[in-house]
């Protein structure tokens, strides 16, 4: 018999041949059964890392729990070799979540677990205690230099230095003053004249932007906070959608919920789209909870990652704030999971394990029995539908903090806007129409700030031959190249390939026209029109690192920049009270993308960027330039009509059986040889169509067909979409497909993308 005692350790002693279920950290599917040797009985806890024989060698394994005798007779099971750590790296709720993720997204469990762990724990090595952020100090053990040091001038000098500064100094400071100081201090320590000490710094104590705790909540915040406190007091799993307009103070609601969980002795997990773009939010958490917060972002060093993991696992740090991958953080006694900007596409990982951290957050809450709060000014249709079906509870905040008005939103119709200075009508509309120029001038005159949004980077987004009409494409991808003038290169935004700018068409030597506006061009135009203004640009080209982004945003917050031009990076939850004008240079860029979410994405972007205006004492104004004033997203944004947009879009999705009224899985087939790839795509199409459930099940297959971007990095891409009323309806088909993937010829790669995000 296998039983679990209360400490979670599995007592396998009483079983004649105790068996263990182990996930192996290799790209293999399923869990494996191993024998628990006598030496390990009573020492195994679920979530522990172990060393197991695998193939001809050994591999890292994760003990998941007891197993029963496999059905097949005559299989010789091998024993677990040893355990790699005393206390398990994975808490039980996380094991449950990782198992769910592997099953749902059709990805090998061992790889799912390895991907979740910090590098220090994802190798088949014994656990090492992460060296925390420590500072080494040298402390003098004597009060004067003893005569024995007369023949050792370096040691004498180092000790003299220490005594001179009061008997105690950081080692690096001594080393800085006395060449070879580190070695010298060690020698002094071995003589017993100096003690070397470490002072441990708690994680996450680097300073953020300090923010006070408001004494008074708005009435809507107060109601929301009370509701969340009540749910926390009740305990157990529940999901709440916090739909609060831009600037309604959602962050404060999260902070109060985290405070309450902490008072209950429970940990919290807070997910944000991107740390570099949300320094204010991180700052608010740090200044409220100090060293109780671990901030998890992609810039962490391996050692720091391990340190945070261990601190959270031990419960010495109880709050984790982080990006997508922080969903795997081993927060102890988890009571609350918050997902800020839950609609954000960055929660979906687009390689390896293609998970959606927002969806995993809900599942994590379920496994841990925790409260889940999904917050946004523009909730996803998926979450709204879950509210309608009674799965999530809705909390709304319809007013801004301090009753500040929502910004006014005005339309600038590019079809009728004439070029400035009454010049001739050209095919291209002006980048900045007269209404925009006037509004920007007024804003400058008042000493206020402007954000200019265009969701395309570069100078010109395509080059076209004036004579033969050829557009310049990437040699590796089926994508137009973008001209970057500052770098004097044309670049592919998909594969990164950069080449010199051609001045003539390669087919007919005709001159190349530079068309399609990008942020770089907008910035140039703005600088020319407003030479007295301080202009900066925020996009992937200008902000090459996380620090650079933070610096730029900080400079904008300090009002050292008057006009900020940028891509969707400027649309994220920023809170700059000086911004009173937001201009959308072209609202249409994301409308034409062949993706069923194009309209939703456009609506979200326009609403979010508009929401940056008028957050301070002065009211905000938004100008939207567009060629499609009658398109649904544009019309509804102008009318501040979230409900109307959502309803209209829901009807359309329902009519065409798209999410949230159906579940989807994309099967992507990529290969170097176009012929072979097409062959595999057709083969998989046949394979699936022969295994389709009866039509009454409502499962449908679209394709196989060439993907919208039919070539990427030199590889041909095919796509096959499966749609069904529920995930359960799709999963037998996906399981079959997963098994079939073992027969795919080398040279073609097939990936299954469950609940796909981007459809390109
Ligand atoms: N009760 C309050 N009293 C005074 N100021 C508040 C209060 N609550 C929040 N604020 C301030 O209001 C501003 C907006 O809050 P916050 O950034 O949380 O908005 P939000 O709802 O997250 O908006 P968005 O969806 O645009 O990100 C912040 O400057 C915040 O400090
Ligand atoms: Zn390319």
Automatic annotation (TrEMBL):
GO terms for molecular function: 3'-5' DNA helicase activity; ATP binding; ATP hydrolysis activity; DNA binding; zinc ion binding. Transmembrane segments: none annotated. Keywords: ATP-binding, DNA replication, DNA-binding, Helicase, Hydrolase, Isomerase, Metal-binding, Nucleotide-binding, Primosome, Zinc. Its cofactor is Zn(2+). GO terms for biological process: DNA recombination; DNA replication initiation; DNA replication, synthesis of primer; double-strand break repair. Binds 2 zinc ions per subunit. InterPro entries: DEAD/DEAH_box_helicase_dom, Helicase_ATP-bd, Helicase_C-like, P-loop_NTPase, PriA, PriA_3primeBD, PriA_3primeBD_sf, PriA_C. Its EC number is 5.6.2.4. SUPFAM superfamilies: P-loop containing nucleoside triphosphate hydrolases. It holds the Pfam family PriA_C. CDD domains: DEXHc_priA, SF2_C_priA. PROSITE patterns: HELICASE_ATP_BIND_1 (PS51192), HELICASE_CTER (PS51194). Belongs to the helicase family. PriA subfamily. Initiates the restart of stalled replication forks, which reloads the replicative helicase on sites other than the origin of replication. Recognizes and binds to abandoned replication forks and remodels them to uncover a helicase loading site. Promotes assembly of the primosome at these replication forks. HAMAP family: PriA (MF_00983). Component of the replication restart primosome. This is Replication restart protein PriA. The lineage of its organism: Bacteria, Pseudomonadati, Myxococcota, Myxococcia, Myxococcales. The gene is priA.
């Amino acid at each position: 018999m296998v039983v679990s005692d209360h400490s979670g350790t599995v007592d396998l002693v009483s079983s004649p041949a105790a068996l263990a279920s182990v996930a192996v950290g290799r790209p293999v599917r399923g869990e494996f059964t191993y024998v628990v040797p006598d030496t390990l009985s009573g020492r195994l806890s679920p979530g522990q890392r172990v060393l197991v024989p695998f193939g001809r060698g050994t591999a890292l394994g994760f003990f998941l729990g007891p197993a029963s005798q496999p059905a097949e007779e005559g299989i010789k099971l091998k024993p677990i070799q040893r355990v790699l750590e005393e206390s398990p790296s994975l808490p039980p709720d996380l094991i449950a979540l990782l198992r769910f993720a592997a099953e749902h997204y059709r990805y090998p469990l061992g790889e799912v677990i390895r991907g979740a762990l910090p590098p220090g724990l994802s190798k088949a090595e014994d656990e090492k205690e992460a060296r925390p952020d420590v500072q080494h100090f040298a402390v003098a053990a004597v009060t004067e230099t003893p005569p024995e040091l007369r023949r050792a001038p370096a040691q004498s000098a180092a000790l003299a230095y220490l005594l001179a500064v009061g008997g105690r100094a950081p080692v690096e400071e001594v080393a800085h003053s006395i060449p070879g100081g580190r070695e010298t201090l060690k020698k002094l320590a071995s003589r017993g004249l100096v003690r070397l000490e470490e002072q441990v710094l708690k994680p996450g104590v680097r300073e953020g932007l300090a923010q006070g705790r408001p004494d008074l909540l708005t009435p809507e915040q107060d109601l929301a906070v009370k509701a969340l406190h009540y749910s926390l007091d009740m305990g157990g799993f529940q999901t709440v959608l916090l739909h609060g307009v831009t600037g309604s103070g959602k962050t404060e609601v999260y902070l109060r919920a985290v405070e309450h969980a902490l008072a209950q002795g429970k940990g919290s997990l807070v997910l944000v789209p991107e740390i570099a773009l949300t320094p204010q939010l991180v700052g608010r958490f740090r200044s409220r909870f100090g060293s109780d917060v671990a901030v998890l972002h992609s810039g962490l060093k391996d050692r720091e990652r391990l340190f945070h993991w261990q601190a959270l696992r031990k419960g010495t740090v109880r709050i984790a704030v982080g990006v997508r991958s922080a969903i795997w953080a081993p927060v102890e006694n988890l009571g609350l999971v918050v997902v800020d900007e839950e609609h954000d596409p960055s929660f979906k990982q687009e390689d390896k394990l293609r998970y959606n951290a927002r969806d995993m957050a809900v599942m994590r809450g379920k496994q841990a029995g925790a409260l889940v709060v999904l917050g946004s000014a523009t909730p996803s249709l998926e979450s709204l539908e879950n509210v309608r079906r009674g799965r999530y509870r809705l909390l709304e905040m319809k007013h801004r903090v301090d009753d500040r008005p929502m910004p006014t939103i005005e339309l600038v119709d590019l079809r009728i806007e004439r070029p400035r200075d009454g010049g001739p009508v050209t095919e291209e509309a002006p980048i900045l129409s007269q209404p925009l120029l006037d509004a920007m001038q007024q804003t400058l005159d008042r000493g206020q700030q402007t954000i200019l949004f265009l969701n395309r980077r570069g100078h010109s987004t395509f080059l076209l031959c004036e004579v033969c009409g050829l557009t310049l494409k990437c040699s590796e991808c089926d994508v137009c190249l973008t001209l970057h003038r500052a770098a004097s290169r044309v670049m592919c935004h998909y594969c990164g390939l950069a080449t010199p700018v051609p001045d003539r068409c390669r087919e007919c030597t005709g001159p190349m026209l530079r068309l399609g506006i990008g942020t770089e061009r907008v910035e140039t135009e703005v600088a020319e029109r407003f030479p007295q203004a301080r202009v900066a640009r925020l996009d992937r080209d200008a902000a090459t690192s996380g620090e650079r982004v933070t610096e730029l945003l900080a400079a904008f917050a300090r009002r050292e920049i008057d006009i900020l031009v940028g891509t969707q990076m400027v649309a994220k939850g920023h809170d700059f009270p000086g911004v009173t004008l937001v201009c959308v240079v072209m609202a249409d860029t994301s409308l034409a993308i062949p993706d069923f979410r194009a309209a939703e994405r456009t609506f979200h972007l326009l609403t979010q960027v508009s929401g940056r205006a008028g957050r301070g004492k002065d009211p905000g104004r938004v100008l939207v330039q567009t060629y499609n004033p009658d398109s649904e997203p544009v019309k509804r944004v102008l009318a501040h009509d979230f409900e109307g947009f959502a309803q209209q879009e829901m009807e359309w999705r329902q009519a065409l059986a798209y999410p949230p009224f159906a579940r989807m899985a994309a099967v992507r087939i990529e290969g170097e040889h176009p012929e072979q790839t097409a062959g595999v795509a057709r083969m998989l199409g046949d394979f699936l169509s022969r295994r389709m459930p009866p039509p009454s099940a409502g499962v449908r297959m679209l394709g196989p067909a060439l993907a919208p971007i039919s070539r990427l990095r030199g590889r041909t891409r095919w796509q096959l979409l499966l749609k069904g009323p529920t995930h359960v309806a799709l999963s037998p088909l996906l399981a079959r497909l997963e098994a079939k993937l073992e027969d795919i010829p080398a040279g073609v790669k097939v990936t299954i993308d469950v609940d796909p995000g981007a459809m390109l």
